[in-house]
Design brief:
The complex is a heterodimer of chains A (96) and B (239). By secondary structure, chain A is mainly beta. Helices cover 7% and strands 25% of the residues of chain A. Chain A contains one helix and seven strands, in the order βαββββββ. The longest helix of chain A is centred in the N-terminal third of the chain and has 7 residues. The mean pLDDT of chain A is 88. With 239 residues, chain B is an alpha+beta fold. In chain B, a hairpin with a 6-residue loop joins β9 and β10. The chains are: A mainly beta (96), B alpha+beta (239).
Chain lengths: 96, 239
């Protein structure tokens, strides 16, 4: 999911396929462009947030075409509990 | 006393339990779907999908609202589809529950004409022309159970019962909804057995959420029924 503002910046339309990538990996998915995401300002700069569910692919649908968000996540964790820090990180989003 | 639904959309969270329960009870196949850029899936009702949670993101009075509308057959008190068909072996109303039922004989009807006659755009056809839609889980209701969608709803958005009780419940829900949503209304409550309560203008939810003011495609049968409407109105109010 992404904001309409980010979609406009990247030339992405609702329902279009996009590439999402991080230093660890990349995947292809479908963009949901929505008003429910809004950019926010940190230190005067516009920061854009995108959301991606983990369980949108790999085993279901049975065509096995969709991928796992874990391709992007950092393999870092809390040193005591080893709970993975998978939830928030930088990605690039690009029109295919 | 016939039965009725109250669908309070202000309580709906779009969990789609109703959508799934309907499929499960009627043994309907799943439809292959793709991400179309919305969480609403499938895109529309079909011969295999009798219940669909429609989702619309609308800015109302400067505030973004995510509107959910669990669409289904309205089980009209005077069903235009039944009047247009004019064949009780294909489309009839169950005398005790008020459910508008479609049989396999609907394949002998003009499916396009039947769909056009519906103010809510509900009936859907299979390849062989048979038409299907929500049947009020009539088999469950006649055995003292609630329809599947009502049974599974976790928030109390879906309600079902004797028409009198539901009409009373609708007024209670309306009063409560109007505290948060001053423009809340009930949609066509006197004409249908599936009464929707919406918090905003019905047009925000779905093109066919409410019957439009203009009549269209009215058949000879329907026109005849309209001539006798004062009488049938009195009879239908008895239950």
């Amino acid at each position: 999911e992404m904001s309409e503002q980010l979609a406009r910046l990247k030339g992405i339309k609702n329902g279009e396929r996009v590439n999402v990538s991080s230093p660890r990996g990349a995947l292809e998915c479908t963009a949901i462009v929505t008003k429910r995401f809004q950019p926010f300002k940190i230190g005067g700069a516009d920061i854009h947030q995108v959301g991606i569910p983990w369980h949108f692919g790999w085993v279901k649908p049975v065509n096995g075409q969709e991928e796992s968000a874990n391709l992007l996540t950092p393999a870092t964790g809390d040193p005591n509990t080893r709970i993975p820090e998978t939830k928030a990180f930088m990605v690039n989003v690009a029109k295919i | 006393m016939s039965k009725s639904f109250l669908v309070d959309t202000t309580l709906c969270t779009a969990c789609r339990g109703c959508q799934v329960a309907c499929k499960q009870w009627h043994d309907l196949p799943a439809e292959e779907t793709v991400n179309r850029g919305s969480y609403q899936n499938p895109a529309d009702l079909s011969f295999d999908t009798y219940k669909l949670v429609r989702m619309r993101e609308e800015v109302v009075d400067g505030k973004l609202r995510w509107l959910f509308f669990p669409d289904q057959c309205r089980h009209c008190v005077e069903p235009p589809c039944q009047d247009t068909a004019g064949d009780e072996s294909a489309i009839f109303t169950n005398a005790s529950t008020g459910a508008v039922m479609y049989t396999a004989n609907t394949r002998n009807l003009d499916a396009g004409e039947i769909r056009q006659s519906c103010p809510y755009d509900i009936p859907r056809q299979a390849k062989d022309g048979t038409i299907a839609k929500c049947d009020m889980c009539n088999d469950r209701v006649e055995n003292g159970l609630e329809p599947a969608c009502v049974k599974v709803c976790p928030t109390g958005a879906m309600n079902f019962g004797d028409r009198d009780d539901i009409m009373e419940l609708a007024q209670k829900h309306l009063a409560a909804a109007q505290k948060k949503f001053p423009n809340a209304t009930l949609l066509d409550p006197d004409d249908v057995r599936t009464v929707y309560l919406v918090g905003f203008d019905p047009n925000f939810y779905h093109e066919y959420a409410v019957a439009s003011a203009t009549e269209y495609g009215i058949s000879r049968h329907a026109a005849l029924r309209k001539m006798f409407r004062p009488l049938t109105g009195i009879v239908s109010q008895l239950g």
